[in-house]
Structures
1.
Amino acid sequence: MHVASIVPISLTVGANRIVPAVAIPYPLGNPELPEDEERELRLKLVKKALRALETEVEKQTVFEE
Amino acid sequence: MAEKKYRVVHYLNQFYAGIGGEEKADIPPLIKEGAVGPGRPLQQALGEEGEIVATVVCGDSYFAENIEAAAESVVEPVSRYKPDVFVAGPAFNAGRYGIACGASCSAVSKKLGIPVITAMYKENPALELYRKEVYIIPSADSVRGMAEVIPRMASFVRKLGLRQEVGLPEADGYFPRGIRVNQFVGRTGAERAVDMLLSKLRGEPFQTEYPMPTFERVPPSPVVKELHSATIALVTSGGIVPLGNPDRIEAASASKFAEYNIAGVHDLTPDAYQTCHGGYDPVYANNDPDRVLPLDAMRALEKDGTIGKLYDHYYVTVGNATSIANAQKFGEVIAEKLKAADVDGVILTST
């Protein structure tokens, strides 16, 4: 599965399970957050990525909220 | 005619040279004087201006099993005939023959510096391998298209033989080689773009100046069933590498990917890891590389039993103007390695 900052590119190149990321220079982080909150954010995104791996898909799927 | 004829050497496989079928597919290269097989109608179409002085013949299997060596061994006999043009095929949709035509053209062009041309069907796998180095003109998918393709091959050979300038792919009827040519035009890009847009809105035909690449689609992989006992791997196109970028992955147009061992690593810290990606502001990733390659989060989930194990290696390249051909190649090799290591699922992060 693909954690991608630019979802349209991920769709164009053909990823089948896509989780939108935070931003280009920090897809799995946010430097504006305090350290513990940023770590929490990253954990949440990775859990979402794992859920995507556990989810049956038949076509390209973007896992929003 | 006082003018000297241009000299052509032609490449054929064992079948078209009339030597034999599959039972002769393992013969090494040999030379025949003059035109043979499809070379005869080709010679006829060339007329008095050019002459097929020799034909190189090689078995398809011999060639396909030793591509580089076979291509090399074609060059020397060809050079003896001092040709002005080298032509191969047509290969139609024959895979091994297509590769032989493409590889021999490529080798002759590189070693002897003479123009080369071949012909094959648009879905011949050799097309993608050699179209950048070799003029390849389209043919039908089978020998039924011989009569149709020979005159086009002949006029291309003639053009090369007479040292005429080769025009754009559409004009001269060959597969685009992915080469950009600078040219002066009277109207600015803005005007041309608006014209194209207007044509599009009116439903009229228009021609893009920059065709977008097409991407392969793959069927979705099956789900990871038992996450708590699964091995999950991390892969990134975000350029996270050990400090100093030991494998020298390029900051743009990456020509390689790398594999690094992360067994026992619990957090990616700035004193040991960095980004080598040249396409985004590196400050955030350099301060905390986990922001691109979420190793700390994966370790936490490994520890609390959400996943069975984080795979001991991660793979990295730089996705910044990286060619699709390279990216595809990296992806295939990385996937093979991950499969061989019994990895159950992969998280690929992109900046």
Note: Chain B touches chain A at residues 215-225, 227, 232, 238, 280-285, 287-288, 290-292, 294, 296-298, 300-301, 306-307, 345-351 (CB under 8 Å).
2.
Amino acid sequence: MKRNDWILAAGVIAAAVLILCFQIFGSTSGGSAAVSVAVGGEPYGTYSLDEDQAVEINGTNRLIIKDGSARMEWADCPDQLCVGHRGISRSGESIICLPNQVVISVESSQDSGLDGVVR
Amino acid sequence: MKQKNQIRSRTAYFGVFTALALIFSYVETLIPINFGIPGAKLGLANLVIVIVLYKTNWREALLLSAVRIVLAGFIFGNMFSIVYSLAGGLLSLAVMTGIRKNKGFSVIGVSMAGGVSHNIGQLAVAVLVVQTYQVGYYLPVLLIAGLATGALNGVISSGVLKSLRNVNFTDN
């Protein structure tokens, strides 16, 4: 390992940590949140996280909302990554099914719980 | 006559490297490690790409990378995986070729940069396909994963390259 190797590694790790912090502090929990579904970039529908329901998406995916958390119950794709994804409830979190181009994301109906961020 | 022999030997070596890269792709499908992240793999086939890049030139490595991805895609994957892998593989090779020119980097650094850029390329295609920046949710994990697998491949590559010090694949 030469010196530039270490600089590169440190840079990548720093970038990853920075983005991760941004994601954690940029998202909020609680509040009345909704789940929005998009297929191929086009909005498909928005569903409240507060009421339990099942959403059929184009016959390729089935979304279940239960106890304030949304998860993919079934998908017809071969890799089943979205089905294995844990439930999402916090604003900014998402489940993505690449083969069917389905994106499910939590959107908070209110702004971030933080008043402001000082850097 | 000498030139003809050179082409023959290069063709033979290229065939061997392609077979080796394909075997690594196959071995990778046998490893039952699921990182829980789409697209995160060990990238063992990139080991061969790095070694070819160092022992010959970027043109051979580019051809090998493209041939390997298309063949492995047809055998083990699907059209989707070919598109993702091509984006990752091409970006990765471009970055590795560029960084290699800087003498401050060792094989390990070059391989790490390759692993990270491979994941960035794949993620970029994913963003284009689903038309959402939300795929970026995976970016931090994929950065670290690329760095780790790249470092591992780099350590192995530098060992292999040391053993191949006296072997010449280009016949110059």
Note: Chain B has six helices and no strands.
